[in-house]
Amino acid sequence: MTSHPSRKPTLDNYLDNHYVHRSNWLRAAVLGANDGIISVSSLAIGVAAASTSRDPILLATMASLVAGALSMAAGEYVSVSSQTDIEKSDIAREAEELAEMPEMELQMLAKIYESRGLKEETAMLVAKELTAKDALAAHVRDELGITEMSQANPIQAALASGAAFTAGAVLPLLVTLLAPLSYMEYYLYVFTIISLIVLGVVSAKTGGAPIGKAIIRIVIWGTIAMGLSALVGYLFGVQV
Length: 240
What we know:
Structural class: mainly alpha
Largest sheet: none
Helix content: over 70%
């Protein structure tokens, strides 16, 4: 059996075997789907525990789906936009400092490289060469810790979160439509746990993380949320 030659790594493809470049959109998508499954299921369980008819459960589930998706998208957009504004402000401030005190900034850059393990002379040489090529880029990357990989797109994050929430929320909605009313809470719980396990597997594989840990984490917190919601419904016992 002959082995296929591995592709020669370049600056464009060297991260293909790593997962860190997926972290921004993956975080938004997993958070959205997880929130969609758990929050809508929890609300449906709470209403089902206090309801004798299907209509209030469906109404609550639909309202939760629409409001949750819009809220998730808007919240993600505002959050990422705020982060982007802060980064732009820091970059502008760094550009001013480079214009006003270039020598001090050069010394600071050399100290950063020295603290990472380079000898004093080597650190200064690296700082000078990077400053000559693109001083602002060097300081933004090594002093502020801002890279293209770490920067998130507000629109992309908002769409990923909203779409993922909707996809997750559709699952409990289907249960409220099809499951027998008398055992609605139990169907919702079992179906939600299965959905969370699938989500945990998918997110772990996509992010290259341990599958077992992802499943345990997502199932435990999902169970707690749904259990507390059902408890509230039983305790208040309001018939709707």
